[in-house]
Amino acid sequence: MICDFREVEKVLLETGDINHLLNLEKNKKLFHSGSKVAIVASKNIVYGVSRMYEMLAGELPQTIRVFREMTGAEKWLEID
Description:
Shape: flat
Order of helices and strands: EHEHEH
Strand order of the largest sheet: 1-2-3
Radius of gyration: 12 Å
Oligomer: single chain
Strand content: 15-25%
Mean pLDDT: 88
Number of helices: 3
């Protein structure tokens, strides 16, 4: 799965909101266990918040990686 945040201009999340998203994923199982989730974020603030989510998501059953460019995400997901 690719989450394309390249057009996002600003982030209106606080640290507690990221923890809320993580708890939502743990309880609702939005992504399949073992799935790969690529987040593409080219703007610095969006990339930084996405990296924070990636680091905190280490105990989720999915693998989450953040990329600045779509080509890196597609390569990691093995999309032609």
